[in-house]
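Weekly puzzle thread! Below is a chain. First person to post its structure in token form gets bragging rights.
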Amino acid sequence: MGKPRWIPLEGAANVRDLGGLPTLDGRRTVFGRLLRGDNLQGLTAADRRLLVDDLRLRTVVDLRAMAELVLEGPGPLTHEPLVVHRHHSLLPETGRLTDVAADALLPWQNDDLAASTTGPVDNYLRYLQDRPDSVLAALRSAARPDHGGAAIVHCAAGKDRTGVVIALALSAVGVSRDAIVADYLASGEVIESIVNRLLGSPTYAEDVSRRPVVDHRPRAATMAGFLAALDDRFSGPAGWLTWAGFSSEDVAALRTRLLD
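Winning reply:
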């Protein structure tokens, strides 16, 4: 697969292009169509110019919870007239927010899951169970970005929630499983920078600091286990997508968008 195409930004640590990934039928995903990233709150003016002007970013698919949007803000790209912000939280929402307490448990706040070898996989499956509507909406936003430009899918770290949606998107267009796992693992190359950025935010600092950096590093067994669980329960990611209501037209739009 080669090294993922990292996009160097001053205000984000985990942004990369999903082009160049091999499919089972010998094709490659196209560069400049789908990006993945971490929290975009710190983007500088130079970052925005690179993303919007040079890379033609037109759609932001934001997977953060409403609590995160309230506490952190929707992000500087919302001020770009060419960019559309689409919010699809993967966490249950109560519709209430008191002081600094989040309505929903953020992915790293569940100590029982963090201590379990199957915990991260269970967490990923819970996104599909709790918010299939948001998962499908995020995939549709990636398949049909606004104004024909690139789309970026992001959350806070760009690893867990983003990892699930991206894995499903890549599976739907036939990217090899090894390539999907390798792309997921690539976030580990910048995990120290990701954690340091989250530690600088009052929204995330206390919870992130409770565990060492090594505990935040993505593991191949997590993504492989998630995909294997879909194999067992739905005959694969494509089976879950069909069960959840992602139509053949949706798949075709995603394939047209992402493949050469």
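Puzzle host: Confirmed. Bonus trivia for everyone else. The chain has a mean pLDDT of 89.
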